[in-house]
Amino acid sequence: MFDLIIKSANLPDGRKGVDIAVSGGKIAAIEANIAGEARETIDATNRLVSTSFVDPHFHMDATLSLGLPRMNTSGTLLEGIALWGELRPLLTKEALVERALAYCDLAVSQGLLHIRTHVDTSDPRLVTAEAMLEVKERVAPYIDLQLVAFPQDGYYRAADGVKSLERALDMGVDIVGGIPHFERTMQDGAASVEALCRIAADRGLPVDMHCDETDDPMSRHIETLSAQTVRFGLQGRVAGSHLTSMHSMDNYYVSKLIPLMAEAEINVIPNPLINIMLQGRHDTYPKRRGMTRVRELMAAGLNVSFGHDCVMDPWYSMGSGDMLEVGHMAIHVAQMSGVEDKKKIFDALTVNSAKTMGLENYGLSVGCNADLVMLQAEDVLEALRLKPTRLAVIRRGKVIARTEPKISHLQLDGRPETIDMGRNPTNRG
């Protein structure tokens, strides 16, 4: 007796019409025509069943705060930072928890069950850390939530920035963050990278830094981060988020930089929606694309995963918690439109991001946690094209969200009565 059997599922690796059996919250079998009974059976009808989506870069303490205390009229990164500085003294733990939980509800409906969020530590009150630690505990049954101690105003630049970050780690925030390009000088930025990597090494924690989120090709803190990663023996435990300056760097310098990053086993986290929105603001025409060199980094063997970053906050007035929207934008901005390219993009929303977050037992094989999402699409290519309905979201083998399929009903003479957007029209034969 299984807890759940999903019949006739298509998998991201191309297998079609297979069954997935779940027992004790784990995947017990993946094969054709699984025999046996189950407490619940779902017929996928040759829909795509994937591992649940993963967002390795988000700001949950700011989410859904759009318009508080005012709108970002210029839409720029710097005004967003200034606006957050205006809002921060007004924040309460109760409001932060309420907005974060509302976002987590949305995330579950989108099949997003694993999130790494940056927690601003620049306010010595650390009300953000208190709130996010409570949220982490409350959503633990359905979302894996990791917290990064993030000195938004600069580790050295902010008053009490050094002490506040240490206090947040003592409270239980479990990843060391940084923002070296926002320090007052390049030297201070480099010094912050060294200090923060030392803290991570001493405490046995991972590192995830906002790094070189700028159009300035001379912002090269990723070089320092890579070198300090090797120096402190943190290989594979460090992420460089954004890295947008790489799109403006000299090609010869990049040809030396990428091998250094590969040696350090840096996890790279571009944020396509926000990067394309906020970068290139000082350009007239031609405008730079605003995203790091995804194709080249992937080709060098670096683990590249995509983050959503923001949803309805001072920096980004849009967003839906849909990681397929992130991947859809990545295809366009990175110009990765080939079949194999799109498969890599899908991996960057799932397995690559899980590696960045160090998730245990994540995957679509026997013994992995049964954290799954069934989509109204037949394969990953259609999922990225359509950003389709999540028909079922499954956490540890239990269905925690359902949505009816989107079916359009036509009234056209001589034409089909219905259109199922999840069925590829080119596959009709």
TrEMBL record:
<protein>
    <submittedName>
        <fullName>Cytosine deaminase</fullName>
        <ecNumber>3.5.4.1</ecNumber>
    </submittedName>
</protein>
<dbReference type="GO" id="GO:0035888">
    <property type="term" value="F:isoguanine deaminase activity"/>
</dbReference>
<dbReference type="InterPro" id="IPR011059">
    <property type="entry name" value="Metal-dep_hydrolase_composite"/>
</dbReference>
<dbReference type="Pfam" id="PF07969">
    <property type="entry name" value="Amidohydro_3"/>
</dbReference>
<dbReference type="GO" id="GO:0046872">
    <property type="term" value="F:metal ion binding"/>
</dbReference>
<dbReference type="InterPro" id="IPR052349">
    <property type="entry name" value="Metallo-hydrolase_Enzymes"/>
</dbReference>
<keyword id="KW-0479">Metal-binding</keyword>
<dbReference type="InterPro" id="IPR032466">
    <property type="entry name" value="Metal_Hydrolase"/>
</dbReference>
<keyword id="KW-0378">Hydrolase</keyword>
<dbReference type="GO" id="GO:0004131">
    <property type="term" value="F:cytosine deaminase activity"/>
</dbReference>
<feature type="domain" description="Amidohydrolase 3">
    <location>
        <begin position="40"/>
        <end position="400"/>
    </location>
</feature>
<dbReference type="InterPro" id="IPR013108">
    <property type="entry name" value="Amidohydro_3"/>
</dbReference>
<dbReference type="GO" id="GO:0006209">
    <property type="term" value="P:cytosine catabolic process"/>
</dbReference>
